[in-house]
Amino acid sequence: MERPASVGELTETLRQGGYLADRGLATALFVSLSLQRPILLEGEVGVGKTEVAKVLAAVYGRRLIRLQCYEGIDTNQALYEWDYARQMLHIRALSEHQIADEGAVDKLFGPKFLLERPLLEAVRAGDQAVLLIDEIDRADDEFEAFLLELLSDFQISIPEIGTIRAESPPLVVLTSNRTRELHDALKRRCLYHWIGYPTAEREVQIVLVRQPGVSETLTRKVVAAVGRLRELDLAKPPGVAETIDWVRTLDFLGATGLDPQAAEDTLGAVIKERDDLDLVRDSLEEITSGA
Ligand SMILES: Nc1ncnc2c1ncn2[C@@H]1O[C@H](COP(=O)(O)OP(=O)(O)OP(=O)(O)O)[C@@H](O)[C@H]1O
Ligand SMILES: [Mg+2]
Q1: How far, in Å, is the centroid of ligand 1 from the Cα of 196?
Q2: CB of 211 closer than 8 Å to CB of 251
Q3: Which of 27, 57, 101, 185 could pair with 130 as two cysteines, CB 3.0-4.6 Å apart?
Q4: What angle do CA 240, 281, 177 make, to 5 degrees?
């Protein structure tokens, strides 16, 4: 499988895929790819944690296999499940034809009736895949413990079928928004990288990569204003995704600058919380000043 030869090469490859990684992130990803270690990405909302896994898969021609975590997720949704409905139909067909040999019953728990879920899919695909375990902090403790086991040996035992193991493990990217602390044991298995907000200069570049054609002057003004918004005590500070949305909205409306009126008219692109709106409306002058 293709791997980058240096951090610089990886940075450039990601850039071609539309993702701008700073040196810290690129280094962490480079090590993760080279040593085949899972990487845990934590960070603020909307700073590109999920996106980097998608772009990595795209630029290296790997399949993206995504496991979206949520409260109550269990192995049936994550690993595999028996196709109960098809098994029932099969049983009915068997009984209609009076077929009752042992083999026919064994087949009920064979590959034909197995529904692959993302983790099994990823073990099978091995290094042809990027496995994105998204928002692991939303899953419960037991699920995390189960993942830990999977991440340590990349093999899955299905009692009726046997053990399936990855010759060469997939690249595993875990993301978390830190709604709860993850266990040390899981963290120990992974490389860790915190993605913070990008510098203003990088954020401008990100917007220009994502929205080619928008005015750079407008972009700089919006990035400066978003920087000030992040300094306020907001419940939901805007991420990079919001910066992009705001620029796109203003550009669409034909704005060339960001005065308090234009900002107020388009706040919904960047502030998505009622209390935050009230707070921001009170200081629009300041936020757009110098913008
Ligand atoms: N470094 C970057 N280079 C290119 N695009 C970026 C970058 N960072 C963020 N983006 C853009 O921001 C959007 C949001 O990123 P993404 O969904 O990956 O954030 P996230 O950290 O997973 O957020 P959440 O915590 O809400 O899941 C992406 O669609 C992408 O367009
Ligand atoms: Mg995400």
Answers
A1: 11
A2: yes
A3: 57
A4: 30
For 205-215, write each residue's pLDDT tens digit.
999 999 999 99
Examine the pLDDT at 202 and tell me if it is beyond 70: yes
CA distance 9 to 62: 18
pLDDT tens by residue, 94-142: 887 766 666 777 788 888 888 999 999 999 999 999 999 999 999 999 9
Please, which residues bridge with residue 194 across strands? Answer: 42
- pLDDT bin (cut points 50, 70, 90) of residue 1 is low
Mean pLDDT estimate for the chain: 92
Distance 144 CA to ligand 2 centre (A): 18
The residue to mutate among 42, 51, 195, 210, having the most atoms of ligand 1 within 8 angstroms of its beta carbon, is 51
User: CB–CB of 198/22 below 8 Å?
Assistant: yes
Q: How many CB atoms lie within 10 A of CB 154?
A: 20
Evaluate whether 30 touches 226 at the Cβ level (below 8 Å): no
For the cut 70, the answer to whether the pLDDT of residue 267 exceeds it is: yes
**Which amino acids bring their CB within 6 angstroms of ligand 1?**
18-20, 43, 45-51, 175, 177, 206, 209-210, 240-241, 244
Tell me the helix, strand and coil percentages in the chain, rounded to 5. Answer: 55, 15, 30
Which ligand 1 atom is at minimum distance from the Cα of 177? 25
